[in-house]
Design a protein that fits this description.
The protein is mainly alpha-helical. Helix content is about 90%, strand content about 0%. It has one helix and no strands. The termini are far apart.
Length: about 100
């Protein structure tokens, strides 16, 4: 081989190695970014799971409070009806007019 051919081949090998090094750096960076994205995605999934659980608990609490509100409303109506009946009875005993309903 001539000195020129060896020099050219040497330069090609050096260029090839440099190109491969830049490719390896790019691949390494991509892998690092993938790991970061994976960690972010996992954290988002955990947060989503936590929020779903919290939402389920809040829905259950709303249902419980709605049922309690209905119960209190029924008791209120029953108490008002009972009180109106007692007032009507009292008015009848005293000879007065019953209160308006």
């Amino acid at each position: 081989m001539t000195g020129v051919a060896v020099g050219t081949e040497r330069e090609q090998v050096i260029r090839w190695l440099e190109e491969r090094m830049s490719i390896f750096k790019a691949v390494r960076q991509i892998l690092l970014e993938r790991d970061q994205f994976k960690a972010v995605a996992e954290a988002a999934q955990q947060e989503c799971k936590r929020l779903r659980h919290e939402g389920e608990q809040l829905r259950a609490e709303v249902s419980r409070l709605a049922a309690e509100s209905e119960r209190v409303q029924r008791e209120r109506v029953e108490t008002a009806q009972w009180l109106a009946a007692r007032m009507t009875e009292a008015a009848a005993r005293l000879g007065g007019e019953p209160p308006p309903a």
